[in-house]
Amino acid sequence: MADRLPPKERTKIPRQEMPEQDPLQRANNFLEVNTGFDAALAQKEAQRCLQCVNPHCVHGCPVGVKVREVIDLVLDGKYLEAAAKIREDNVLPAVTGRVCPQEHQCEGSCILAKRFAPLAIGHIERFVADYEQRTGQVGLPPCAPPTGKRVAIIGSGPAGLSCAGDLVLQGHQAVVLEALHELGGVLAYGIPEFRLPKAIVQQEIDNLRKLGVEFQTNVVVGKTVTVDELLGEEGYDAVFIATGAGLPRFMNLPGEHLGGVYSANEFLTRVNLMKAYDPQHSDSPVFDCRGRSVAVIGGGNTAIDAVRTALRLGAAHAWLIYRRSETEMPARAEERRHAIAEGVQFLTLHNPIEFVGNEQGLLTGVKLVKMEPGEPDESGRRRPRPLPDTERTLPVEMVVVAIGAGANPLVQTSLPDLQTNRWGYITVDPASMATSKRGVFAGGDIVSGSATVILAMAAGRQAAQAISDFLKDGEWPNVVARGGECESNYP
Ligand SMILES: Cc1cc2nc3c(=O)[nH]c(=O)nc-3n(C[C@H](O)[C@H](O)[C@H](O)COP(=O)(O)OP(=O)(O)OC[C@H]3O[C@@H](n4cnc5c(N)ncnc54)[C@H](O)[C@@H]3O)c2cc1C
């Protein structure tokens, strides 16, 4: 238990660094990079909190975690109570403590950040979530008495899980239908083991199971069963669509068909679901990167994950090719720093224009052109433009294209009366997440386009509340407006 210091004293404590595996060692294994705070570090960091009367960090968190109260409990050494407090608003604390872009959310709003480093809220969240799991005393909140209402949730990513968790707390039956054999969505098949171990995702899903959420895998809604059947003979009272944006996107460049060119989706899914990260399964038929030169194209989290994965699979050279500058990359700052320390070579302000191959149809290189920042685009960033006469070919044997992804289409194509935008994202009423079809709600990446875990979770929460209201009074909002305004998320 730590004493509350006077505010001036608190600001004298430097932000506590997250311990991590040595970069050169970790570049050769899939063990977690960040090794986590212990109680002493968590206490010391918590002492830095100014305990603001109006805590901006809470407003900065899309699911509204009561950060100030959590920190107070940590200072009292009440770690289990702190974890339970987080669980009131966030069903995946061990996940969000690891992968949230805190610098743009809770920590981005921390008042300390005006003059000092912000409070390491994410690291403290991870510590209490892991502490709770280690002691086996998970503080699951109580559920309301059963209402007898059943809700089908399509997709087991963060949006689906968050919605399911909130629905069971309100006494409804929540059944998650997942197309794949593994649960968790991108948390399971996208984000690599060295950032988010599968065991952590599994443990949070087990917690939801204990709360009463039911899961069915290998159910492809739109093929195995339709939404109309779910609402009809299957007897569900409402449906929440949380199918994500996992459709691979390519650049339509010459040579894209060559052997050795992959989408990030295929690359990461195969590595994750075929367990290439696990030495026990290293004979699995995944990508042989050993001794090869691999280039990944893109600047988002997916690109950084793919290039660091290639490095761990034994690539001799792992290039990251991005058309803007490093500071403009949307990937988390921490991941960029980690990648560079591990030996990833950044080739920024470069863009591919062609993939080059040999007579056997195998990739031998990628033709690149240099870029320069041009006029600002709609996002306010300067649109990169090619510099004439700057072409060169980088010899590589494998390329992973990580330039964003599109809407997963199956549910929409099997449900013609569901309103979508021209890129296939589902349109919803932004207040209630209600779609154009009565009883059907949608949220997460399938509405917003590729975003973040916590935003998907926030959408799941918002939908759970709206579904609960609908189940109570049967009233259907008549405003159906917008959603999924993105065409391409190539950053
Ligand atoms: C490689 C990678 C790294 C990322 N890193 C981060 C990060 O560090 N931090 C962060 O905040 N965000 C990160 N993101 C983004 C984040 O993971 C997503 O925004 C988030 O997972 C979206 O959640 P979701 O629930 O909407 O969809 P998803 O997580 O995509 O889940 C959708 C689920 O629906 C299932 N499904 C699809 N169609 C059907 C169907 N017809 N029937 C049944 N099931 C179906 C899918 O199999 C999937 O399991 C990353 C994304 C990727 C791809």
Automatic annotation (TrEMBL):
> Which parts form a coiled-coil structure per UniProt?
none
Every copy of the FAD/NAD(P)-binding domain together lies at 150-460
Enzyme class, first EC level, given as a word: oxidoreductase
Q: Which keywords does UniProt give here? A: Oxidoreductase
Q: Basic and acidic residues composition bias: which ranges?
A: 1-18
> According to the UniProt entry, what is the EC number of this protein?
1.4.1.13
Superkingdom per UniProt: Bacteria
Q: What's the protein called, per UniProt? A: Glutamate synthase [NADPH] small chain
- The record lists the organism as Lignipirellula cremea
